[in-house]
Predict the structure.
Amino acid sequence: MISDLILFQARILIIDDNQSNVDLLEATLGAAGYVSLLSITDPREAEGIYTAYRPDLVLLDINMPYLDGFQLMKQFEKIEANSYIPVIVLTALQDEKTRFRALAHGAQDFLTKPFNQLEILTRIKNTLFVRIYHNQIRDQNLILEKKVQERTIELADTRREIIYRLGRAAEYRDNETGDHIIRMSKMGQLLGTLAGMPESQADLFVTASPMHDIGKIGIPDRILLKPDKLDREEWEIMKKHTTIGADLLAGHNSELMVTARDIALTHHEKWDGSGYPNRLSGENIPLIGRLAGVVDVFDALSTKRPYKDAYPTEKVISIIKEERGRHFDPVLTDLFLDNIDKFLIIHKKFTIDEEMASSDYKLSKRDESGI
């Protein structure tokens, strides 16, 4: 229920070129208890004042110099793009054509001069009730919409955090700090953007790629943590982390989960078809898999692992160049190398300089293809 206090504090704008009419309306409304009154006699000022004052009700004359009431209602209608214009038309014109025209332009009510004070106060009160209820509902809807947006953001943040932590769980099993998945996701986002990927898809890569090695949780420690080169049987088991990861992420058709599954499954495929698990080649490898392949290898080569020291940047760049058109998509390789300084900045920014937990591991002879 709207109280009289709220009603009498409603903002009322009076627009009439006749000062006598303005004075009479102000006196009538003031005596009735309305306290927020603003009046103008020059209609050219109306648009700016309406925008700044945001009235709950406009008492509007029709016949005025420079701009008539119909023209002003058009201006107000543009300002109230997501609402309606709260106008009561006051005019000496009593023909039906003027009345219908005023209502067609958005007027909520129509009164002819000279007006009865009791009638106009009643109509003003009724119109204000509708306007204030409308505003309350609108504001409540805005509050609810904001809460929904905040909740949606919270859920998205929570989802990203869960994905990140799942990715870190896999990395920890491989004696990683978890920084690898941050660097890889950020570099993949940049490379995707350079390749013309839409921003939404590049952002999706950031969210989904931390799970690229989630399948490592299914690889035995004796293989995953072996400091020496894997034998043929061990290597075949190791390669299964791609299909294990894809199986773990399968079964849900959301864009995020589909993307995560595709990255997990294809990030070890090679441009020339010699990769695994399905020996895909060229553009048969999804773009997200090709992106992941470049940045995953670059980061692995550039970072200390239990079985290897970090390679010098010059050597890493040399290896990437050599693998252009063999391991890596040539176009992506060129984009990567042409913008290498940007990728080095990301790598440095998200690298924590600390000793590996298993510092007793020695540099091994593990095949670089197992990085």
Q: What stands out?
A: The chain has 16 helices and five strands. The chain has two domains: 4-145, 174-370. The radius of gyration is 35 Å. Confidence is low (pLDDT under 50) at residues 353-371.
